[in-house]
Amino acid sequence: MAAPTYTENIAEIAGGKIHFLQGGIGEPMLILHRDVGNPGWLPFYEQMAQKFSVYVPSHPGFDKSDRPDWMRNVRDLAAVYAWFLKDRKLGPVHVVGLGFGGWIAAELATMNHFVFKKMVLVSAMGVQPHRGEIMDQVLLYTTDYIAAGFTDPAKMEQLYGKEPEIEQLVTWEINREMTTRIAWKPYMFNQSLPVLLGGVDTKTLLVWGKDDKIAPLNCGERYMQAMPHAQLVTLNRCGHFVEVEKADDLAQLILQFLAEH
Distance between CA atoms of 207 and 180, rounded to whole angstroms? Predict the structure, then answer.
């Protein structure tokens, strides 16, 4: 049996425990997961770990991390990650924010302009689209919400199984409750974020699936318009969960972007 390529760890931050996965060697890279939680050490993480020392924390209130009773918004969550990076003596780092995690990364970038070397936002929430709207997960059964994020149902089944286990369903509901608490009004965006992003000099790669039904492409277009050093790349036949449906393409885009001067 092959040796594990990552370890599970705990950090004590802001009075609670943050569970995180760590693997790889090289420069540090922070990966922030989606609103449905972190499904484990994905093949995409492993690809990044071939070149970088990858940290994948579970957000406070999600998965195996403690739930902070005091937390009320995404900027609170971003501040905790600034603390996490300081505690781990990491920084500046490369960051990859996936969906909801992209919003957290963007908020942190506006709060500390020197915390990230380069930033990658993949189908990120956080800004209100002018065309279309961010899908409201509270109106759907969780499996239907996740299924809407895939163009290829086989990719979802490969990740979660044909019938997700009860434990997985419970975890999704816990994660959804925490998402709702900190991102409900307004739902999944911050009206001040597009203005504050104008002050972020961090070079940023935006990656979107052209068939994203959860965070429409216009979110990516608005991020690009707001940020002075951002570029947008779209992928055909790809939905919201880019790191699963197009893991190889995403990894190649990121490695090329991070290699640029």
Answer: 25
